[in-house]
Write a structure and sequence with these properties.
The chain is mainly alpha-helical. It contains seven helices and no strands. Helix 4 runs antiparallel to helix 5. The chain is elongated, with a radius of gyration of 16 Å.
Length: 168
């Protein structure tokens, strides 16, 4: 594979956007009575935690070093991760999948995470596209993917781990 194609696949903006689309698909599955809602929640929980931890440890700090990438938006992104993690924990703690309480907590989660995805795409990711060189975005993408994979392998979406992340 040519180096430029490999770089595009690793572009941190592209890999983050791919995760965002996967999260939206998992929301659809969690809402569908015809789907394995509990399975979709397990997948979502792991992805949300791995994604957020990888962004915070490998991407956000690096982006703050670039001119015209808004530091306040990056810090706000961390706050929104916390809100999403809290909403995730509230849903994970509901005993009966598909109950009225479950559906209500799911909608709280959808609202918190969808708001964050939209804001991050319009501010942080557009700032990265415009101001961070391709080569650096590829390096950040590789670091993001490596950390995300490490998180996923550690069962980061378990309720015990989500509780620990929320309590930090």
């Amino acid at each position: 594979m040519p180096e430029s194609a490999d770089r595009r696949e690793q572009d941190v903006v592209a890999v983050i956007l791919e995760d965002h689309r996967t999260m939206e698909e998992l929301f659809r599955r969690m809402r569908s009575v015809e789907d394995d809602r509990a399975g979709a929640l397990r997948e979502f929980s792991a992805l949300l935690i791995a994604h957020g931890e990888a962004e915070e440890s490998e991407v956000y700090g690096a982006l703050k070093r670039f001119r015209n990438v808004d530091d306040e938006e990056v810090e706000h992104g961390v706050e929104e991760h916390e809100e999403g993690n809290e909403a995730l924990l509230a849903l994970l703690e509901v005993d009966e999948v598909g109950s009225e309480e479950w559906d209500s907590k799911l909608e709280d989660l959808v609202r918190a995470v969808s708001h964050h995805l939209d804001e991050e795409e319009r501010t942080i990711l557009n700032g990265a596209r415009e101001n961070v060189p391709d080569e650096r975005r590829a390096e950040l993408g590789a670091a993001f993917l490596k950390e995300r994979e490490r998180q996923l392998e550690s069962d980061c979406g378990s309720i015990e781990n989500v509780r620990a992340v929320v309590k930090r």
